[in-house]
């Protein structure tokens, strides 16, 4: 049985790390406490969140106030299922969720939003600059992932500056962005790699310049640690096999279509190869650039082709409503859809129309885990070469739809607080 999520609950997140002044007075904190660097008070008691999280007042390393039950509730929210036990997660990922079980105060959220809007943001007096290098930061999912990375970065007093770049799908610009980040002193870099091995030389150059580079969600299987310190991702081949099983559950052995994101991206190539090896019969393929316009064009082409695809396998949930509407307009039955991530518009449309739909969770939280990996390395600690997280696909359920939330809200599993969600989505 899947756990229902309350749409209006506050999302689990952690508080901004204490300022240097507070750290100097650490001995006094036990008795008197200390305000955050922005002057607001920080509670040391439990706070209300969908993860049942406790507020922390000691930065990223404070987990003593977090119970196992609270952490498990955060994991349930992040995974959009209660089938993943917290104790089964890799140690670094479990530590991430422990620290993700606190809610940032209003001042911390304001700082996070200011950093999210800016290309460069000074957040404290720490001597580490964090770079967020996005290969294609132009859709809603990437925007929420950037926020998750920033929220995590704000738990580290060691981070003094955050610099964000967006290559808009251009490899040459992505390579240039990485050079720019290291030239500006970035010692920790997190990235969604849209370009696969073509980006490895630029990553390697960044690491030679002294930056620890970690990637999230997009695969880097086979990447040397000289290029990527830590890959925070699912087992891409297993993801393809799981999609194949969900397809069998939905439509049996019927033929299907594969929709991809940016042309040639390794994520889609990886799962599609393994889904095919698992017996999925793809009779149509199209790129969408992970945009609604691209998905509409691909759907129209599929319908026009006359090929009898009974399911569409895709790695982004946000454009699904335009795909469904394209079928409705053509007076054609909507095929089953098996898709990565989660999206409120998709979930609420399904609630009305009830086509066959399987989704993962939002996955935005993986960007925050990548921050932890890069920061561990930047601070001279051990970081694993890969941080593989569970990747369950679940059938759509009514509670996935959050009434009153915008269509492109990626769901509670994004772990972004409500007030920041509204600002990201222009509300």
UniProtKB/TrEMBL annotation:
<protein>
    <recommendedName>
        <fullName>Periplasmic binding protein domain-containing protein</fullName>
    </recommendedName>
</protein>
<dbReference type="InterPro" id="IPR025997">
    <property type="entry name" value="SBP_2_dom"/>
</dbReference>
<dbReference type="InterPro" id="IPR028082">
    <property type="entry name" value="Peripla_BP_I"/>
</dbReference>
<feature type="domain" description="Periplasmic binding protein">
    <location>
        <begin position="138"/>
        <end position="381"/>
    </location>
</feature>
<dbReference type="Pfam" id="PF13407">
    <property type="entry name" value="Peripla_BP_4"/>
</dbReference>
<keyword id="KW-0732">Signal</keyword>
<feature type="signal peptide">
    <location>
        <begin position="1"/>
        <end position="32"/>
    </location>
</feature>
<feature type="region of interest" description="Disordered">
    <location>
        <begin position="41"/>
        <end position="65"/>
    </location>
</feature>
